[in-house]
Write a structure and sequence with these properties.
By secondary structure, the protein is mainly beta. It folds into 4 domains: 14-132, Immunoglobulin-like (Sandwich), CATH 2.60.40; 134-212, Immunoglobulin-like (Sandwich), CATH 2.60.40; 221-323 and 551-558, Immunoglobulin-like (Sandwich), CATH 2.60.40; 333-534, Sandwich (Jelly Rolls). 4% of the residues lie in helices and 39% in strands. It is built from 3 helices and 38 strands. Strand 5 (96-104) and strand 6 form a beta hairpin. The longest helix has 11 residues, at 539-549. The two termini are 36 Å apart.
Length: 561
């Protein structure tokens, strides 16, 4: 593509002038409205990279403000085909600014010339060369609309439809573009009264390559966070899809005065510029700390160079409209409770929000005012306190696959006579703590397993250092064949479990006491970041979760400026 001053025809160029004069072009009006006839003319020549003229190339001329979404079909009068010498011409054009685009169908090569200024005279476009196409990966705007939209290059026919699935991805690919400088890329909802949104300007398209556009080029500050999954970082053997990476900010390394209130202007993107969804769980500029969740579509295994970019420092920027939850149900999350909410009484229904957006909000029946947490604020529970979500989604009803997880801190004192129920899915499956320094994961099958003394499958572990008043991450998984228990990212026990979960009891999520109402299972201690997944997470996911979330974690690590 070219954007340069265009020379008038020289009087001496008699052959070209005569060629132009012989044209009988159709009417063409500014803005693509073919209702007026002008006297301006334009001509030029198209060649291959070798310099050989290109015959049979399709040439289209359009007003520079033409909108390919609403402009309709391009009139035949705005199209031409190059002759044996690679020449084209347009006549009777209304004065104004035009763009020219060229396509050779056989070779799939293209070119474009922008900002051709036409007055009442004739203009010769400099010889233009066809090249292999390139593409632009363009971030989508932070809008709340959920319908169909379009990304397009004004004054051309290049446009791409944006549906809900593409909107979730955060970026769009404009492909089969002619190489060179693109003056602007716009987004519109497609409604006749919607105003276009500028996505980017002056973009250089490279042939046979994808050019990635940053959504945050005008932000004042940026930093890189390295996701090292090799032996020198957190070693994992398999890629992890849809993983929520926790990013912790702390003063003075991070200057909170550079960011907007509440972190409203903080953004994250992949290395290629694709925006990433983020959720700010905690932001305390005065205390100098923040905890932010960022959804990575893929954390690559055995990789020391992958990173995510963080941007901040953009005056007037509001909170972005979320395209999808960081803890997306499509990525296997069934319910996530940060437990950061608080209210003075013990009757607030729906207080504790489910971060997946699935609606599993939980009621507050907690008298304890302890807000200690491992990530932002958690919640303390005295014996008898509990949190319950009674109306829950079917994502929690997984007979052959689940993962259940919580951070906990207790010393084993104050439990009920049968232990302390940390997380119970209506007693159908759950996690429990025992006063003799033990953790326990279980589930009830439909019928009592043959050869077992109990009517449920379970894995228990005892150790002297689990009920030590420190934070521990307890996780249980079931994959349809084996029930496993993990503590602090390591598997501590498993048992064969061939029978699916029976779901004999009413479905709910209960923290702090028995999920089916039995006494003697009251929990006393702290809980934070309770999660239930509709899939069985593997050992790499479990390990990465612990290493990322544990206090003092160095994953991800901020790169040196």
């Amino acid at each position: 593509m070219k954007r340069s001053p265009l020379k008038p025809f020289l009087a001496a160029a008699m052959a070209i002038a005569a060629w132009l004069a012989s044209g009988c072009g159709e009417r063409l009006a500014s803005g693509g409205d073919a209702t007026e006839t002008g006297n301006a003319r334009v001509a030029g020549q198209i060649v291959e990279e070798s310099g050989k003229p290109v015959a049979g190339a399709e040439v289209t001329i359009l007003p520079s403000d033409w909108n390919p979404v609403r402009g309709g079909a391009v009139p035949d009068s705005q199209k031409d085909t190059t002759d044996a010498d690679g020449r084209y011409r347009f006549t009777r054009l209304v004065s104004g600014e035009y763009n020219l685009q060229v396509l050779q169908l056989q070779s799939r090569t293209r070119s474009a010339v922008f900002a051709i200024q036409l007055a009442l005279d004739s203009v010769l476009v400099p010889k233009d060369t066809l090249h292999a196409c390139g593409a632009l990966s363009v971030p989508l705007p932070e809008t709340k609309d959920s319908g169909v939209g379009y990304v397009y290059i004004p004054g051309t026919t290049f446009r791409t439809r944006v549906d809900s699935e593409l909107r979730i991805s955060g970026s769009i690919l404009l492909d089969s573009l002619p190489p060179g400088l693109v003056p602007s890329v716009l987004y519109t909802k497609g409604d006749s009264d919607s105003r276009p949104i500028s996505l980017a300007k002056d973009l250089n398209v490279l042939k046979s390559q994808v050019t990635y556009v940053s959504a945050y080029a005008t932000w004042s500050h940026s930093a890189k966070w390295i996701l090292n999954t090799t032996a020198s970082g957190v070693a994992i053997a398999k890629d992890q899809k849809g993983f929520p990476v926790l990013v912790r900010l702390a003063a003075p390394a991070f200057d909170f005065s550079q960011a907007a209130a509440g972190g409203a202007d903080v953004r994250f993107a992949k290395a290629d510029g694709t925006p990433l969804e983020r959720e700010i769980e905690a932001w305390d500029a005065q205390a100098g700390h923040a905890e932010i969740w960022v959804r990575m579509d893929t954390v690559r295994a055995n990789n020391a160079s992958q990173y995510l970019s963080m941007y901040w420092g953009k005056a007037g920027t509001a909170e972005p409209a979320s395209r999808r939850s960081v803890f997306d149900t499509l990525s296997g999350f069934a319910g996530v409770w940060h437990l950061a909410e608080e209210q003075a009484d013990t009757t607030a229904n729906g207080l504790y929000k489910d971060a997946t957006g699935a609606g599993n909000d939980a009621d507050d029946r907690v008298a304890s005012v302890s807000r200690s947490g491992v990530i932002g604020a958690g919640h303390g529970l005295d014996s008898g306190d509990y949190i319950r979500a009674s109306k829950v989604s079917n994502g929690l009803r997984q007979p052959t696959h689940f993962t259940i997880s919580t951070w906990c801190r207790n010393n084993g004192k104050g439990f009920g006579s049968n232990g302390g129920e940390m997380v119970s899915i209506g007693d159908n499956y759950g996690l429990r703590s025992y006063p003799d320094s033990g953790f326990h994961v279980w589930y009830w099958p439909a019928v009592q397993p043959a050869g077992l003394s109990t009517p449920w499958y379970h894995v228990s572990v005892k150790a002297t250092d689990f009920l030590d008043g420190k934070w521990h991450l307890v996780q249980g998984t079931y994959d349809g064949a084996t029930l496993r228990l993990y503590v602090d990212g390591k598997e501590v026990g498993n048992t064969p479990a061939p029978d699916p979960v029976g779901f004999q009891f009413p479905l709910n999520v209960t923290l702090g006491k028995h999920g089916n109402g039995k006494l003697g299972y009251e929990y006393k201690g702290d809980l934070d970041e309770v999660q239930v997944h509709s899939v069985a997470r593997g050992a790499d996911w479990i390990k990465l979760t612990y290493e990322n979330q544990k206090p003092g974690s160095s994953f991800p690590a901020q790169a040196a400026p």
